[in-house]
Specification:
Largest sheet: 6 strands, parallel
Order of helices and strands: HHEEEHEHEHEHEHHEHHEEH
Number of helices: 11
Strand content: 5-15%
Bound molecules: zinc ion
Mean pLDDT: 96
Helix content: 40-55%
Oligomer: single chain
């Protein structure tokens, strides 16, 4: 098994039993990483409002900031975009992790013109959506349980639609079928996800990373970028706890239980730390093997 396929297998663990296995696009993780190597400015949108709590969930911002920091370490410029429900959560998480990117707050009622201006201003070469709601076929936004969050979601779909029309590469990361970018696998969402025909997002990404938890998809992407560059850009498991606690201080809640507990997608923090540790260990072996091979060649 190639290294990319191995990472895809690790991040596709589906402890929430959402049936995401049928949505995974083998090879897209590697294609997304290769695409980002050529990036200049990357616009990353994240933040998913939990209906009952009226606040952003704990899945999304950690993935977005870990990816942001990796891209900044590669010398790329990053711009983060979210809406009011995740703005302070994302801002604090980015700050604690040392991400320099500006955090843009798009208003809920901003229309296409606003997003067109955003693209003109920042001139991104790539747009990445990390656990960001995507508009469904009926024009509304839904959570996993079919609850409507249209009034709680800025229309960041315009970034994907306008961006792709202008030749900007769009990368989507999700875990349920209702996230921006998932339109790439609409048919599979109808088949594999309960209520998929209703909640499935329409806007398609060029490269789609589907994971058991969306943060894991971002970590997998950073792991593969690290392998391509020969340098470890992934965070330590300890950071997983710091990022979560920072979000909780800003009012974030778990997306499954809607509680302000140390959980992401209903899974306790220990599960997430273990996932990062697994990726980190495997990346370390991969990088060491490369060094050994380089020494042997000399
Ligand atoms: Zn999701
Ligand atoms: Zn999630």
């Amino acid at each position: 098994m190639g290294f990319a396929a191995e990472i895809e297998r690790i991040i596709a663990a589906d402890p929430g039993e959402r049936g995401i296995g049928g949505l995974v696009q083998p090879g897209d993780l590697a294609r997304a990483a290769v695409a980002l190597q050529a990036a200049r400015t990357v616009l990353i949108t994240t933040g998913f409002c939990v209906l009952s709590a009226r606040s952003g969930e704990t899945d999304g911002p950690p993935g977005a900031v870990v990816l942001s920091k990796a891209l900044e370490a590669m010398g790329r410029k990053v711009v983060l975009v979210t809406d009011q429900y995740s703005h302070s959560i994302l801002t604090a998480t980015a700050a604690v992790y040392g991400v320099k990117a500006v955090v843009v707050e798009a208003s809920i009622d901003a229309g296409e013109d606003y997003y067109a201006a955003l693209l003109r201003h920042y001139q991104p070469s790539h747009i990445v959506a990390v656990e960001r709601p995507g508009q469904a076929a009926d024009g509304k936004y839904y959570n996993m349980r079919g609850g409507e969050i249209t009034e709680l979601t800025a229309r960041t779909d315009h970034l994907f639609n306008l961006g792709r029309a202008a030749g900007i590469v769009a990368i989507g990361l999700g875990d349920g079928g209702n996230e921006l970018g998932m339109g790439k696998v609409s048919e599979a969402i109808r088949r594999h996800i309960p209520g998929g025909a209703k909640i499935g997002a329409v806007a398609a990404a060029d490269h789609l990373i589907v994971a058991g938890v969306t943060n894991w998809g971002a970590y997998g992407l950073v792991t593969y970028l690290s392998a391509l560059l020969g340098t470890d850009l992934l965070h330590d498991p300890d950071w997983e706890e710091i990022l979560l606690d920072t979000m909780l201080q800003q009012g974030a809640v778990d997306g499954v239980t809607a509680a302000a507990s140390r959980r992401i997608d209903g899974l306790p923090i220990e599960v997430h730390c273990a996932l990062v540790a697994t990726l980190k260990a495997r990346l370390g072996q991969y990088l060491d093997a490369g060094k050994t091979a380089a020494v042997a060649a000399n």
